[in-house]
Amino acid sequence: MFERYIIVSKGIGVYLGSCLGFYFWSKIDAVGQDSAIAFPTIDAARNFLNAYSTKFPVGDFVSIKKVITSNEYYASIAECVAVGVPDWSEQLKRGDFLEK
Description:
Strand order of the largest sheet: 3-2-1-5
Shape: globular
Number of strands: 6
Number of helices: 3
Strand content: 25-35%
Number of domains: 1
Structural class: alpha+beta
Helix content: 10-25%
Distance between the termini: 36 Å
């Protein structure tokens, strides 16, 4: 088991990862991801946030949560839910990757 850190935005959800300059969050574009990026240290998560080039929605609250994972690099939906993060699995089942 690994002690890791995930980034959670009240407005756009859990940070799931990025590709080709696009950032993916559980509430706005989960792109089929059933796990979140798990940072090895709280400082690594903070450094990511400091370098994040996109603005968060006005009034959004962003936090870093400690999570125990079975994978060194990712936190499953269940592991995220265990620390109070909203479950995004139903969104994946529906194939509805953009909330309306």
